């Protein structure tokens, strides 16, 4: 692994690269590395820090917030276009231009603000090439402003070096973002690659890589495959999450979400239009027995979720209480977690809380700490034809009093508007039918999902 200084120097000594740096907040920590190692005159056309809000608005135009994606994109667009306008005639045939920008909120004097930032680079891979772009969002975790500035400088250098030297290998590029850093200091919860250098890149896979490589505990993308930054997407929203394998999406998955949302919004009708629904897949549900991830299988799941219009989250939170804590980091509104009745019984198994000093009581304390409620979908036992709801579940005797207490508190709600015709559908059974080309599986999934599976031969469908 190259040191940060070595990366900055290698960029400076590259005669082809030339561009500008624009940084707002936390000082000019990225460009400082390039000035400090020497040879900066061959790389830096301009360095600017539009720190004053009015000055920043006058240069880049107004934005909803000063630390947001819109502001970063405005900075990249203006600075890159200025480079072309001012320098193309003089050196455009031998120079690959770039513009780096960041807008950051580092720890304030009182330590009361969210410490995060947007960083990006727009660059040509070769002289006169169409631009490519990398945008990332980071959370800075150091407790001191000076340490946050240092970490920001390092990841900025990693981003620039990666754009110039690793764009051919997106996996290596993403992994290199934390070179000479650790996840104790900085978290990367969004990366988006676009442009000519990344024409074959699927940003959903990049989101998966973030979690797989440990750069972030969770990542999100929209139904159309666009990468989402959690704090901006969830901010001031009610959040409803259904966890599952979705291999494939079936009628029961969709019915669970729709029925839960109906119940969820009925409890707060004024906020009905402010609810974000998410289909969440844990890394555990994506990993095989040998700890490998089948990318084709992941893309198949993402594709069928896209067909149903769902926002997707990939997380490394097998425990529900950790998922709830993560969501509450970004919204102070209501959070609903959807699960089947059978999964609710499993939730009361003490083995899942062995790592907590307070055991199962600590686990449930964390789960319900931040305005969280569970919405339970009924389960039908195929052998006995018994319909299980929260009132007749076979919870362990040891946990019965805890279960009754939580019901009385109103944090466990039964979903009543379920479709009993779907209760016999289980994704593993449907998957087996698809892979062995058994007739009748199409009736168990939404029509649009069946069409997608057949057209692209997903999930091993032999056609």
From TrEMBL:
- InterPro entries annotated for this entry? Rossmann-like_a/b/a_fold
The name this protein carries in UniProt is Nicotinamide mononucleotide adenylyltransferase
Q: From which domain of life does this come? A: Bacteria
């Amino acid at each position: 692994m190259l040191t940060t200084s070595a990366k900055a120097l290698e960029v400076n000594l590259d005669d082809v690269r030339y561009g500008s740096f624009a940084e707002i907040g936390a000082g000019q920590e990225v460009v400082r590395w390039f000035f400090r190692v020497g040879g900066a005159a061959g790389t830096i056309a301009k360095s600017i820090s539009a720190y004053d809000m009015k000055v920043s608005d006058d240069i880049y135009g107004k934005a909803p917030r000063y630390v947001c994606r819109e502001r970063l994109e405005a900075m990249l667009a203006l600075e890159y276009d200025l480079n072309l306008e001012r320098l193309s005639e003089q050196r455009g045939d031998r120079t690959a231009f770039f513009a780096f920008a960041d807008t950051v909120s580092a720890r304030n004097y009182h330590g009361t603000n969210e410490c995060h930032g947007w960083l990006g680079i727009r660059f040509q891979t070769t002289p006169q090439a169409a631009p490519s772009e990398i945008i990332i969002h980071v959370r800075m975790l150091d407790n001191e402003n000076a340490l946050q500035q240092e970490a920001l400088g390092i990841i900025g250098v990693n981003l620039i070096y990666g754009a110039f030297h690793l764009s051919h290998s997106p996996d290596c590029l993403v992994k290199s973002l934390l070179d000479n850093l650790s996840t104790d200091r900085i978290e990367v919860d969004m990366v988006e690659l676009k442009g000519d250098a990344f024409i074959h890149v699927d940003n959903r896979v990049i989101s998966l890589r973030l979690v797989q490589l440990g750069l972030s505990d969770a990542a999100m993308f929209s139904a159309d495959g666009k990468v989402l930054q959690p704090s901006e997407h969830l901010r001031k929203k009610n959040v409803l999450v259904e966890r599952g394998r979705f291999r494939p999406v079936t009628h029961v998955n969709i019915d669970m979400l729709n029925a839960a949302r109906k119940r969820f919004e009925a409890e707060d009708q004024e906020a009905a239009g402010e609810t974000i629904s998410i289909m969440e897949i844990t890394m555990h549900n994506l990993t095989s027995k040998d700890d490998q991830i089948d990318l084709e299988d992941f893309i198949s799941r993402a594709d069928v979720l896209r067909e149903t219009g769902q926002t997707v989250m990939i997380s490394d939170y097998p425990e529900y209480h950790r998922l709830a804590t993560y969501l509450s980091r970004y919204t102070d509104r209501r959070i609903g977690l959807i699960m089947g009745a059978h999964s609710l019984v499993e939730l009361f198994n003490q083995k899942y809380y062995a790592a907590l000093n307070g055991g199962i009581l600590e686990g449930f304390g964390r789960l319900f700490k931040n305005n969280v409620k569970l919405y339970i979908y009924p389960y039908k036992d195929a052998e006995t034809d018994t319909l299980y709801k929260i009132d007749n579940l076979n919870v362990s005797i040891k946990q019965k009093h805890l279960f009754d207490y939580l019901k009385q508190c109103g944090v466990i709600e039964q979903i009543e508007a379920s479709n009993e015709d779907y209760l016999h559908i289980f994704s593993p059974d449907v998957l087996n039918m698809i892979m062995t080309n058994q007739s009748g599986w199409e009736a168990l999934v939404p029509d649009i999902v069946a069409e997608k599976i057949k057209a692209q031969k997903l999930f091993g469908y032999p056609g």
